[in-house]
Every structure is written in structure tokens, then in C-alpha cells.
Description:
The structure is a single chain. The protein is an alpha/beta fold. The chain has 2 domains: 4-31 and 280-408, Lyase, Ornithine Decarboxylase, Chain A, domain 1; 34-277, Alanine racemase (TIM Barrel, Alpha-Beta Barrel), CATH 3.20.20.10. 29% of the residues lie in helices and 24% in strands. The protein has helices spanning 18-25, 34-47, 65-73, 83-91, 108-117, 127-140, 175-183, 208-226, 252-266, 276-279, 312-316, 404-407, and strands spanning 4-7, 10-13, 16-17, 29-33, 54-58, 77-80, 99-102, 121-124, 145-149, 192-197, 233-235, 269-272, 283-294, 299-303, 322-324, 332-338, 347-355, 362-365, 387-391, 394-399. Strands 4, 13, 14, 15, 16, 17, 18, 19 and 20 form a 9-stranded mixed β-sheet that branches. It has an 8-stranded parallel barrel with strand order 5-6-7-8-9-10-11-12, surrounded by 4 helices. Strands 1-2-3 form a 3-stranded antiparallel β-sheet. β8, α6 (127-140) and β9 form a beta-alpha-beta unit. α2 crosses α9 (252-266), α5 (108-117) crosses α6 and α8 packs parallel to α9. The longest helix is centred in the middle third of the chain and has 19 residues, at 208-226. The termini are far apart. 45% of the residues are buried. Bound molecules: pyridoxal-5'-phosphate. Pyridoxal-5'-phosphate is lined by residues 58, 60-61, 79, 102, 199, 202, 237-240, 273-277, 370.
Amino acid sequence: MHDFKFKNGELYCESVRVSTIAKKVGTPFYLYSHHTLVDHFTKIKKAFAPVDPLICFAMKSNDNLAVLKTLADQGAGFDIVSVGELKKARMINADPQKIVFASVGKTEEEIAGAMKANILFFNAESLPELDEINRIAKKLKKRPKVALRINPDVEAATHARTTTGTLKNKFGIDLRAAREIMKTRKKYSYIRFSGLHVHIGSQIIASTPFINALKRVIEFVDVLRKDGIDLEYLDIGGGLGIIYKDEKPQTAQDFANAILPNLKRTGLKIVMEPGRFIAGNAGIFVTKALYLKDNGVKKFLIVDGGMNDLVRPSMYDAYHEIVPLKKTSAKKTKMDIVGPICESGDFFAKDRMFPILKKGDLLAIMSAGAYGYVMSSNYNVRGRGPEVIVKGNKYAVTKPRETFKDLVRGESIPDFL
Ligand SMILES: *Cc1c(COP(=O)(O)O)cnc(C)c1O
């Protein structure tokens, strides 16, 4: 499942002892396994081989250049949500014909940038966005491909902040409006309407919501056919759940078995956008114990990483497994594991039975490879730690720790003060 395993009581990433890296780069830091990334990508690729999909890694889950290069070398394309992500994809020479662009708020600069880069298609999310794409295409003399992001109005049975496929969410276009757009598509003379896109949320464990959403979209493909409209692509989004605690998510193969017959029937080129499934369990966040505080009511293990580094527990009530890097026989007791930030929401675990560690002991927050570093901030004027990648017995810092200079770059005090 992943390449973070204990050998002789110590946590390794592939063939490298994690504490060796910690000694070299300091704490806290993020650590990624090359082999796990490749393995997860391959699992999806194999499971869906019968439709030979284009797998566009959702870059917003992890945009580290070494991670992107690893996946591009396996044949991955990228699902981007900003021009910044487009620029990072170009830094690793990603093939623009394997890039798709979703976002409810694409700016003119972003639309023009993606058109000039000649990406595969835009996933358009509203009527006014189509007007904007058409206008910019005319100006640039381009004829971009566009897939309509359909909002199928299904509940994804995940955290309220990671569901995107109901009409209470800001994403996508409802079916009725989509049909109207397609019927009047001649209005958008610079747009090639090439596909449909659906993405109903993230960390989805069961296949039922996917199946329901896909059913609606595939029925819609048939409706369009009857209207005389033929498409080229069906982009089925991402959202595959992973194991953080005791979830029993469908495997890539279960998911494939459940939907392959329907996908094949469409005869369309399938695009997928997995993020978390590939990167989630391919990364950990390593931090150091600072103090054990006991206020008589509760115990708190205070560590040197905070919610600015890994916000998922605060933001989504996310559970992350936490392990000391060195197996210990120290007594376990109930504690909160918290960061140093001035917020009660700054925690990694609540009321967790955890061994009593000493100052300086190292611990790993598991499953931190997706929506980890990418959501970090400099809150409390804290520089981000480095990102490190392991391949076999080699490791390297792929992004260095931020220095104070990085944090105040460009900042100045106006003359009138
Ligand atoms: C976030 C996102 C994804 C990836 O979601 P995961 O849950 O990480 O697989 C895919 N497509 C779109 C449009 C997204 O916004």
C-alpha cells in the first residue's frame, strides 16, 4: 500500500531511515516516496486499461516538481486549477496536450495563458465563463476545446467541505442549462464543445455516488447524441478515497469494475483526475516533540509542526495516523498532539492514546502527501519546512526550508508612515 514501513523498530521510507533525513534537514519536513507515487499511478492505469484513459494527476493535491516529474515520466497528464499550476507543469516539460483546466473562477490572464499553451481542454463551469472563453479565443484567433463541467446534483457522502456535486455547491452546470448551452452552441463560434466533465467531491469511499453521477452524465451523453451532438471526451474527475484510519475504500480495481462497462459503452475518450489516491499515502509529515504539558485536566504533546504546515485536521476534522519514528515501549496515555500556533484549532490529534515521548523525539504524521504542503501557510511568520523525496536508497531536498528572508521578500513600509 505504501513504502513507509518499520524495520528493526525504526520507520523507513523505501530504503532510507526517516530519522537519518531528519538529522540532515531538520524538522519539520514533508517526505515523499517515489515508489509509492508510481505504484498508485500504476494501480489506476492497470485497473482502467480496458479504456486506456488519460490520467491527469490533480496537481492541487501536491504540486512539488519532483512529484510532478515522477508522474509525468509514468505518462500522467495534469488537471490544473490556476495559471500558476500551468507554469509549474511547464517547468517539468509536461505535454500541454495532457493538461485539462478546471476552476469556477478562471481569470482572463489564466484563460489566455492556457489557450496560448495549447492545453487539451478547458472544463468550463458556467455560462458567463463560456462567453469569456469565446471572447478571448476570438481575440487570440484560437479554437479551444471545452468540456462542460456537469453538476449532477448527487451527494458524495464525504465531508461537507469536500463535496462539490450538488446544486448547493458552486461547481459545474446543471443538466438543463447544459442542454440549452449545447443546443445554442453555434453562438460560441470559437469554442469546440468536445466533452463533459464531472467531479463530485473528494475522499469518497463508496462507488455508489460515482455510479449515480456517471449514470446521469452518460444518460446526458445519449440525450446530446439524439440532439445531433457528438462529443470526444468524458472526464470523470477524481475523488477516490484512501485509508487514513479504518476506512475501507474501494480499490482502483473495484472502482473500475463498477464503472468500466458504462464508460466503454460511451465510446468516448476517458479522462481521469485522481489526486489524493496517488499522493495521499505517498507522503508523511515529520515533526519533533517539544514539550509534554499536563494541565491537570488534559495532556498535550506540543510539537514543532503546526496547522500552518498541515491544516487538514483543523480544516476538515481529518484523522491522520501518527507514529513515533522509533518504536517505543513507553507508556501510552491519552493526549492531544498540538502545534505551537496561537489557535485552539492547531491540533493534529485529539484524545489519542499515544506513547509518552521525550523532548526531541521524532514523530511522523502519516498520509500527508495530498493537500498537505500545498495548503500550508506562513501564519505566525513561520517558514515552511523542506520537501524531500526518496527513491530507493537515495534522497534529496526538492524544495528547501523557507528562510526569514523568504518570508519578508518585497515587503516594505510606505513613505507616508
Ligand atoms: C480536487 C479535484 C480533483 C482531485 O480530487 P481528489 O479527491 O484529490 O482525487 C479532481 N478534479 C477536480 C476538478 C478537482 O477540483
